[in-house]
Sequence to fold (664 residues):
Amino acid sequence: MHVADLTEEQLLALIVPELPLGSSTLLGPGDDAAIVAAPDGRFVVTTDVLVEDRHFRRAWSSGEDVGRRAAVQNLADVAAMGAVPTSLVVTLAVPGELDVAWVVGLARGLAAVCGPLGVGVVGGDLSGSPLVVVSVAAHGDLQGRPPVLRSGARVGDVVAHAGVLGRSAAGLALVDRAAAGGTAGPGDDDVSHDGLVTAYLRPTSPLPAGPEAARAGATAMLDVSDGLLRDAGRMARASGVRLDLHADAFAADVTELANAALAVGADPWAWVLGGGEDHGLLATFGPDAVVPASFRVIGRVESRAADDPAVTVDAVAPAVGPGWDHFAGRPD
Amino acid sequence: MHVADLTEEQLLALIVPELPLGSSTLLGPGDDAAIVAAPDGRFVVTTDVLVEDRHFRRAWSSGEDVGRRAAVQNLADVAAMGAVPTSLVVTLAVPGELDVAWVVGLARGLAAVCGPLGVGVVGGDLSGSPLVVVSVAAHGDLQGRPPVLRSGARVGDVVAHAGVLGRSAAGLALVDRAAAGGTAGPGDDDVSHDGLVTAYLRPTSPLPAGPEAARAGATAMLDVSDGLLRDAGRMARASGVRLDLHADAFAADVTELANAALAVGADPWAWVLGGGEDHGLLATFGPDAVVPASFRVIGRVESRAADDPAVTVDAVAPAVGPGWDHFAGRPD
Fold:
């Protein structure tokens, strides 16, 4: 059954029951607007869009994959403020020839991420379109705390990261290689490489680590969506400091990706330091803070002279690329 | 200059200064998420998407037109809850060959609607795409009042409407006719017909009438985006009543559209009762309420027997169509 075989109301009747109501939802879908609790007297809001053939390909990603990604990348931005996610709304533009099952899968993907967190999918809009475009706006509650901005890193702070590094980029490279008709490497009969493809198709984010960092007194935080070096550079520039990362801290990440890198002829360091869409959290903590267990220390905040790079690795400007630009398109 | 000539950051540097910060904005664009005040301890949220060649055509609509529409249709949903709009976020997917001026115009269109209301455009996301897709999520504050739902209409209430009826549909018909190479009618040297084309390209909504209705004790309310009969039917079904509209109440609307209807061979009653995208507000008030001056009474809430239609005009089931389905596509 295709989308074009149903009216909007019939399609909604299949989707809405899949969506979690959420523990902060005071009025769910069905009226002109939803109502969400904001006990803090403020709410955090962020938005991101996924466009077919730019952010995902239908040949590789199921509806559930895309739904999970759309939820995770938005909720990670909420968490990166130190907020607890409460709700999201979604607009979905889809071709008439799309299988209804794909759309229901997308709803299930949103639900799979949101449901366990008590996040409600509280509203949406459907439209026809020549290609799939999924736009999400997500909200969160700061629980009375000040937000953790990217601009608060101070000289002497430790730099810490929660989540994974380079796994999504590695997964993308493996999928690309498989799609190009090559094998993923000698002896491999699939491209999964211990979950790397899944890490690309269904990234996860250590969402509870955001509020944990805020409670622990994080001085700065952001979501690592465009690559560690690039996002660290943003934090460094916003804070007027230099982030010096310690190469030793990434040895395990690089080792873990070594086989996949060999298989596709890539540099695992480029994945770890430059790969996008892992949706970890980068944060800084004062020298006396107790860094939460969800984070590992990866460097130190240093002063930045006029000619200094914003980010260094072991005090040297890194040789690998600066990550990628969603807008200019990614290198696939 | 085309979008593809700029990086995402360069394009943002042109757009962001155009956007109003808003009087409820505690933290604007630039970090992972924005922060908006919710003094009521709740917030209202709604979302809508506009897809090129389905909701608008670039040959007819400027970037500013589309920006205005995107803002108005979302803020109207906020107002229809009885809330005061506070903020919106927007995702914009655009082709690389699009003029940068079109995108800046879209930002100006959002600003033209939001700025005077104190509504902030607090966040966004940009992506490339083969066609323009604009998605907005809008938020509002209920100021301590209960929301005005569509389900609250009670037998004996008066039915009232704020805003215009049929003007957007008339404008669309005129634009269609002009695009098809016909003239808009004998003696016309343009298709403007006293602002009807503008009413289609840049619909307005009586946004302050939403909170006014709530303060006056409106029992039910919704945004009229899909045609009066269709949206009245939604209210009637949600409330378990019949809305009886009084034909006399629409005489002036029909008269005003008579010339344009003659020019394109249309029935002005179909525009007034069935035309979409006027974004007026339909509300019901108890028999003793003082209906705000922004509304005019157009009917009465009656009981509904099992076989009754949800909406009648002078107690008879109306002969014109039920409006249109955004998803199945509109009749252009």
Notes: Residues 174 and 311 of chain A are 28 Å apart (CA to CA). Residues 322-332 of chain A have pLDDT under 50 and may be disordered. Chain A touches chain B through 69 residues (CB under 8 Å).
